[in-house]
Amino acid sequence: MSAGPFSLRQAALFVAAALSVAVAVQSVWIAYSGPWDIAFGRNMLVGAAVVIALITNPAFNTIHPPSRAGHMAATALDAVLIAVIVAACIRFTQVEHLMEGAFYFFTPLDAWLALAGCAVLLEATRRLFGLPIVIIAALALVYCLFGHVLPGFLNHAGVNLSRAMENVWYGFQGVFGMPTGVVIRVVLVFVVFGVVLEGTGASDALIRASVALTGGTRGGPAHSAVVASAMFGSMSGSVTANVVGSGSFTIPMIKRRGFPAATAGGIEAAASTGGQIVPPVMGAAAFLMADLTGELYTTIALAALVPALFYYGSLFAAISVQASASGIQPVPAEERVKLTGRDYIASLHFALPILAIVTVLVMGRSPAMAGFVAVVLALGLGLFKRDNRRSLKLYWDIAAKAGRACASILVAVGCIGIILGVLNLTGLGLTFASVISSFSDTWLFGSLLVTAFACLVPGMGMPTLPAYLIIVLVLGPVMTKLGADPLAVHMFVFYFGVLSAITPPVAIGAFAAAPIAQSNPMRTAFVALRLALVGFIIPFIFIYEPQLLLIGPFDPLSFARVCIALALSIWLLNTGLAGYAAGRLGLPMQALRLALAVGLVIQVPMLQYALILAALALLALPGRLVARAAPATEPLSQTKGGT
């Protein structure tokens, strides 16, 4: 199977690469000219995405120990799966045309072929993202067909296979429904944009600029990782790509400055994960959110700004406290990176496309057009680099990588479409929302806790956008019904979808950083979780105080109160957890700081005013009263560079 210069496997990989390039190119073209005909555009793109996923993640990779017979059987299985998904997608177009001409009665062949297409889609999802979301989708299909025999609120009127597939596969409420359409029309061009920036070397200039800007801080490379990951993560939208792209450079530097390996990996994982909450791009989420909420893009980006600043401010504070506690000094002046004129010119490679996105949107053009302009500009600027001009094959590789990234998103959203189709057909979504609402008994905080947990579970191991889509469409109406602002609800769900990337046990961001840091993946995940703890608190705050999102009637006094309380809470939380603030803190002082930090985020105005005064008084006390005297350079741990 593998002998010869043009083996079957090589031919399959070439087909996958060609399909990937086609998916990437058409994503950019759609951003410029508009989407294809609904009767064949969505299904062909999803079908191509499934084929790409099956070829690049073949079944024989799971055979241990490998054998020739097993290899051949697995290859035959993949060929059958590809044939099935192609046939099912072609039949979708044929059925759509038949329904346009006359009333069409679905045949058993239509139903079984659609069910087989769903099964292949689930298998592609499993290979890309694991079992959790596949199990949910498979159970949804089983419930759709057999839910009429279940008791209680799970019971429905009964749906036969033909009706189920008419809705899930052949209609526009399932696999090829609204979420898939929005992703194709708006999101994919920004996925391509992130890969183009990474592939043409824009991230290199960004990292160098970040290192130069933060060289004088105690955190040094750790702070530079935060800055670089915030900027690059906003554009790429992929936690793993962000971790690998910037972490391969920053993590070794962080370790060399004396941070433990798990801390170095955790810093990069937390920083890379948060990139998706940073405007203007937010990993394309800003544009998807604008489409779903009906708000202007500028409203979404402005709403995301202050919480993102607090998230990264908390990372800066945590790193500074850790560096001080471990006796880590700033990088010596003679060793710091100094930016040259060439660096400033290189920085235009990532600055100009971002500026172009904002400019096009401010001019009133669509997000898709902004993405198109950004991709074209990034490609053009990439040609100014000599290395890029020497090998134009680089651009083929970039397009292939971008197409594979687009395919992953399409497969995940298609799988989510199965679930949404079942929810719409059976009414389970409304029933589930009603149960949660009654469980919460008009208790908004209870609904928030349930929703936060629901966001973390499907988000583990999946792209953020599909996880955000399913939760906000199912549970979003519950919180809105209980009085939460719709935009705040969307932002709440999105935050927890993002943070699922560093939430154990899956923690895909931490697991990507751990091999680079040469640390234990689970330990790295818990370090990232501790560093990003404030990110789990901020969404609760802006649900109760939308002032933080700069939406609704703006009260400067309330906004100042919320911001001051949150800033103080961040500092007290980090110093309390580290047990260090200009010196070692005793356990009573740590407990006091942590108690004040928790109290400050409780959104009761009079309580916050009182605790703000108490916190300021605590911080103003002489050092001898708040900390046991200890040299600032005395390390708390002797495991520098270890795990």
Question: How would you sum up this structure, described in words?
Answer:
With 643 residues, the protein is mainly α. The protein has helices at 8-33, 41-56, 68-101, 108-129, 132-146, 161-168, 178-199, 202-214, 221-236, 239-256, 261-274, 285-293, 297-325, 341-362, 367-382, 386-390, 393-426, 428-440, 444-459, 464-474, 476-481, 486-499, 508-517, 521-531, 533-544, 556-578, 587-600, 605-620, 623-626. The radius of gyration is 26 Å and the shape is globular. It starts with 7 loop residues before the first helix and ends in a 17-residue tail after the last helix.
Question: Pairing-aware structural class of the strands and helices?
Answer: mainly alpha
What is the makeup of the main sheet? none
Sketch the topology as an H/E string, one letter per element: HHHHHHHHHHHHHHHHHHHHHHHHHHHHH
Q: Which radius of gyration do the C-alpha atoms yield?
A: 26 Å
Helicity, as a percent range = over 70%
* Number of helices in the DSSP assignment: 29
How are the SSEs placed, and which strands pair?
Blueprint: H1 8-33, H2 41-56, H3 68-101, H4 108-129, H5 132-146, H6 161-168, H7 178-199, H8 202-214, H9 221-236, H10 239-256, H11 261-274, H12 285-293, H13 297-325, H14 341-362, H15 367-382, H16 386-390, H17 393-426, H18 428-440, H19 444-459, H20 464-474, H21 476-481, H22 486-499, H23 508-517, H24 521-531, H25 533-544, H26 556-578, H27 587-600, H28 605-620, H29 623-626
Helix pairs in contact: 1-2, 1-7, 1-15, 1-17, 2-3, 2-4, 2-17, 3-4, 4-5, 4-6, 4-17, 5-17, 7-12, 7-15, 7-17, 8-9, 8-14, 9-10, 9-11, 9-13, 10-11, 10-23, 11-13, 11-23, 11-24, 12-13, 13-25, 13-26, 14-15, 17-20, 18-19, 19-20, 19-22, 20-22, 22-25, 23-24, 26-27, 26-28, 27-28
